[in-house]
Amino acid sequence: MPHFSLQRQNGIAIIQFDNPHKQVMDSNSVEELRDLLPILEEDSVRAVVISGRSESYFIRHYCLTELLSHSLARASTWDALFQSTLDRLEALPKPVIAALNGTALGGGFELALAADYRVAKNGRSKFGLPEVSVNLVPGGCGVGRLADLVGVKRATMLTWRAKLLSAEEAYGLGIIDELLPEDAEQSVLARSIALACECSQRSELSIRYVKQMARSYKRGEIDNPLTAFKSVLASSECRFALEALIDSD
Question: What ranges in the chain are assigned the alpha helix state H?
Answer without folding.
Answer: 27-40, 64-69, 72-90, 107-113, 142-150, 152-160, 167-172, 188-200, 204-218, 225-233, 236-248
